[in-house]
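Sample intake — DUF1849 domain-containing protein
Collected from: Acetobacter pomorum
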Amino acid sequence: MRRLRRLPLIPPLARNFCATRAYKAYAAGRAVAFVMLGGVVSVPLHLAHAQTAGAVVPSGTGAQSTAPVAPHPNVTPTTGPSFSAADINQIASQRAVYDLTLTETSGGKTLSATGTMLYSVRHGCSGWSTQQRLDIQSVTRQNGVEHMISDYSTFESADGHSLIFRTMETSNGKLLQNLRGEATLHPDGSGTAHYEKPLAKTLTLPAGTLFPIQHTVSILDAARSGKTEISAPIFDGTSPDGATDTYITLLGWGKTTPPTDFSALNALQSGHVHVAFFARTPPNMMPEYEMGMRYFANGVSDNLTLDFGDFRMKGTLHTLDLPKAETCHAKPHQKKN
């Protein structure tokens, strides 16, 4: 049975995002649940037989260190949440719906596939609320009709130091994964993730870890600064295994691009982004998966490619709503007696 796994958020960029690399197939099956957070598409493959990875700490005990970070290209990593309000405010509140269509199959396992993806992010005065729903119907030679649904929601604080997360994945109505918990970060990006479901446990997060919105902001900030590559771990709550390392390359930011069907995007800068995701435990030089996309300056993507290994789907932006930002007022200072 194929399982849903979420994708690390990165708005679709470029012509047809190239999500390369087939996702690992496991004896218990593959889960593919996609989550777009803060403009980034996340695809963690949740394993039906997954065992706890990294440093696991029983509830109520102190945290321990995780295994060493997997070796990556010689790129200076980020050092934790430190973005200005101006950087954060570049990310637009949005409600985007994508039509998913089958573009390629290999091995003859998948006969057809269609679906939709809803991605919603709202910027409030205290933080960011994100929801994503991936709904895919496919027909395979082995299992016949498969209906996969992945629901993902988070609340990320405005300072990027706390995250409340929930992920639920089903296949033909059968629950595959139910993750719930919260995570906190220190100024250097290190921190802890506390899981309530499926099992109560605590994992340590490495220094430099970013939550989804902050991860998206780091990509856009790097692109505007003329950088061509950055590296940072991300924790988004879609995997029971804690943080995932990412290596991002950026190309062509700010260059003129063909007009889109959405006038709100046509005046914005955009660029091509490629993201490779690496498991932290055990360390591995090869990425678990990769994806490419075109990112707009406001964190919106207009198309994407989702690679499930034996078949690939193209996501095309069908509807886009950009609600006005919430008006926030500073709290008045209390007079001292």
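Post-analysis note: The chain has one domain: 5-48+67-320.
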